[in-house]
Design brief:
It is built from 2 helices and 10 strands; from the N terminus they run H-E-E-E-E-E-E-E-H-E-E-E. The protein has one domain: Porin, CATH 2.40.160. It has an 8-stranded antiparallel barrel with strand order 1-2-4-5-6-8-9-10. The protein is mainly beta.
Length: 187
């Protein structure tokens, strides 16, 4: 566990050091498990930190790759779930100059997720869900908007739709959808 935290911190610090924007945020995660005709929805709350750099492609059009470290947890009926991973969004964006000090961007693009830790504790027994239940890799589509005020402060809202089934069993299907809100410093 400590080794994974050190690796994630090193990746995040390198990404933030080379970034145009560094940000912190909140995530609301909805995990949906389908078993036959039954769907079970699990809700998680989490936090994330990241960095990104916007490359201009054309007038008001850009692409912004980023790197985020995500952590979320849930406790329900003596069951605790912990998850930590890396998310790599690639946001294609369009800028609207609303006012002298305010720019609004709309974005959409692919996102990739690499799971580092997914543990579940039931009482005193802890299991790694990546060993027999879930794959570590996911990809999806993200969309949303952000606004930059005075090219210094950023407020971003987004939604990720996971496209691949992350369950390793042929009986169940598992996908996550993520709503996120973040505030960042543009430099």
């Amino acid at each position: 566990m400590k080794k994974l935290l050190v690796i994630a911190a090193a990746i995040l610090s390198f990404g933030a050091a080379k970034a145009q924007v560094a940000y912190l945020g909140y995530q609301g995660i909805s995990g949906n498990t389908k078993a036959g005709s039954t769907t079970i929805c699990e809700a998680y709350n989490g936090v994330f930190a990241g960095g990104a750099y916007n490359f201009d492609l054309y007038e008001n059009v850009g692409v912004q790759p980023g790197l985020e470290v995500n952590f979320y947890t849930r406790t329900e009926n003596n069951v605790k779930d912990y998850s930590m991973g890396l998310r790599i969004p690639v946001d294609f964006n369009y800028c609207f100059d609303v006012a002298t000090d305010l720019k609004v961007y709309c974005f959409a693009g692919p996102s990739f997720y690499i799971g580092l830790l997914q543990e579940q504790e039931i009482g005193d027994v802890s299991t790694d869900r990546y060993e027999d239940q879930l794959t570590r890799f996911a990809f999806g589509v993200s969309l949303g908007a952000w606004c930059d005020w005075k090219d210094m402060l950023r407020l971003k809202v987004g939604f990720d739709f996971e496209l691949n089934d992350r369950s390793v069993t042929s009986v169940n299907k598992y996908k996550e959808n993520i709503f996120s809100v973040s505030v960042g410093y543009v430099f």
